[in-house]
Amino acid sequence: MVDPGKVAWVRDTLPGAHAVTELADVFSLLGDPGRLRLLMSLLGGGEMCVCDLAATTSMSESSVSHALRLLRAHRVVSVSRRGRMAYYRLDDAHVRMLLDLGLTHTGHTVAAHPEHAISRTDRE
Fold first, then answer.
1. Out of 2.60.120.260, 1.10.10.10, 3.40.50.300, 1.10.8.50, which CATH number does the structure's domain 14-116 have?
2. CA–CA separation, 17 and 65 (whole Å)
3. What is the pLDDT of residues 30-48, one digit of tens each?
């Protein structure tokens, strides 16, 4: 049986369509394994150049550059230049928190359900 009071209250408290679309865009950015590996590398390694990110993630420099352009366009990473080198860093505290929460969540999931753990070689 539908609870009209609860339905009305929840509808009134839901974010608007624009906010939901923006949130979906953020999760879409984080949903790509290559971009996620880059962000995790920047989370752990701090400022890194394209060649170091490519070596760390086993991605081509072209793929890394393409992903970084997209992440920069969404203001998730920023770049600083020193001479001819460009160094990228994770520049969004909210995305940093999402990554930390995601890592915590997967750690708890593996601890509670080790049978579902994915080995490092399965991830690559």
1. 1.10.10.10
2. 31
3. 999 999 999 999 999 999 9
Number of continuous H segments (helices) and E segments (strands) in the chain: 7, 3
CA–CA separation, 40 vs 122, rounded Å? 17
Which uninterrupted H or E stretch holds 21? helix 17-31
Distance of CA 60 to the CA centre of its chain: 19
Strands 77-82 and 48-49: unpaired
- Measured in whole angstroms, the distance separating CA 9 from the mean position of its chain's CA atoms is 32
In this prediction the pTM is 0.77
Cβ pair 63, 50 in contact under 8 A? no
Using one digit for the tens of pLDDT, what is the confidence trace for 68-110? 999 999 999 999 999 999 999 999 999 999 999 998 888 876 6
